[in-house]
């Protein structure tokens, strides 16, 4: 079983900050991603977006849908499709566990961040997540505001 991963060591290219607000994240998994040369060059420039992207099962594998990697200008006519589905590279056991949770328990797979690891390889951190209801979001916001207020009080007291 995969355990929660620590923060990535390399350069974070894109982050899905909205995911922590909209979903209750249960299990994080690191996955490789199949990219073309122009996509890697565009990512190295720090240009991509995970907003409104999601992962799902297609043909027995996990794919990342709707991730936007803009065209790499110097590539001219040899460029890639900006929003094409991209295959994620994971162990079969991890794929089966994620797909099983999505089908049986009604969960979803959400991409959290895209980054380059210490070896310079593009990776995606995905999470098995359950959608939050409106009252859960309010509860989370209350908790966050209280933590902020508590730290201010402690800081001011000295």
From TrEMBL:
Coiled coil: none annotated. Transmembrane segments: none annotated. It is found in: Cytoplasm. InterPro entries: SmpB, SsrA-bd_prot, SsrA-bd_prot_CS. GO terms for cellular component: cytosol. Belongs to the SmpB family. This is SsrA-binding protein. The gene is smpB.
């Amino acid at each position: 079983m995969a355990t929660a991963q620590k923060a990535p060591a390399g350069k974070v290219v894109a982050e899905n900050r909205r995911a922590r607000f909209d979903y209750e994240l249960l299990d994080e998994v690191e996955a490789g991603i199949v990219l073309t040369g122009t996509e890697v060059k565009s990512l190295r420039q720090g240009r991509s977006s995970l907003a409104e992207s999601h992962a799902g099962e297609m043909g027995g594998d996990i794919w990342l849908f709707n991730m936007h990697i803009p065209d790499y200008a110097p590539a001219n006519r040899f460029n890639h499709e900006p929003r094409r589905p991209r295959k994620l590279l994971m162990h079969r056991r991890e794929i089966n566990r994620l797909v099983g949770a999505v089908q049986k328990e009604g969960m979803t797979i959400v991409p959290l961040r895209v980054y380059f690891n210490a070896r310079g390889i593009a990776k995606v951190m995905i999470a098995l997540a359950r959608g939050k209801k409106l009252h859960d979001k309010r509860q989370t916001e209350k908790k966050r505001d209280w933590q902020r207020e508590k730290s201010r009080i402690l800081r001011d007291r000295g």
